[in-house]
Amino acid sequence: MSKDFMRAMRISNPSMRAIADAMERDEVLRWSNSLQRARVTRWGGMISTPDDILQVQVF
């Protein structure tokens, strides 16, 4: 959904605000469910990338 559409729904009718909020939450849930789970192999120096070369440079 476009941000402009969501904004227009909220402004046009106060009762539409709850519907727009629910649609936005559903969109975030769909997006978050599509993400790959992170894998932590060492807790001591966790960095935010699975890139082996960068991990070697950091540790």
Automatic annotation (TrEMBL):
The lineage of its organism: Eukaryota, Metazoa, Ecdysozoa, Arthropoda, Hexapoda. Pfam families: USP8_interact (PF08941). GO terms for biological process: protein ubiquitination. One of its GO terms (molecular function) is ubiquitin protein ligase activity. InterPro entries: NRDP1, NRDP1_C. Residues 2-58 form the E3 ubiquitin-protein ligase NRDP1 domain. It comes from Rhamnusium bicolor. SUPFAM superfamilies: NRDP1 C-terminal domain-like. This is E3 ubiquitin-protein ligase NRDP1 domain-containing protein.
